[in-house]
Amino acid sequence: MYYAAPYLIAIGRVLMAVMFIQAGISKIFGYAGAQGYMEAAGVPGALLPLVILLEAGGSLAVLLGLFTRWSALLLAGFCVLAALLFHLHPDDQMQMISFMKNITIAGGFLILAGAGPGALALDNRR
Prior knowledge:
Layout: H1 5-29, H2 31-40, H3 48-64, H4 68-87, H5 93-115
């Protein structure tokens, strides 16, 4: 399997990034709704541009393998914060599933931050 590692890591980066790219873009087109959702959870809506930048920009960086370790680390932190702020509702099974998914994705980003982007990444050209 070692020969497949560069391809598996690159595919893994793509799979981890796609959801966040889509989420960031959807927040741009649904700005008011996303801002309202944040404010309803007690998070200042003024932070939404940073959320969009991190979700769309950070995940695009992960996808391309550019500044991968830093982007993955920031996205891991984002996932943990989102889990705690929006999904930690022990009485609601669906929210707890989302909580655990966010924590699991954060773990994947931490592995990526620690291991690096693999051979097929723009980081290797810098």
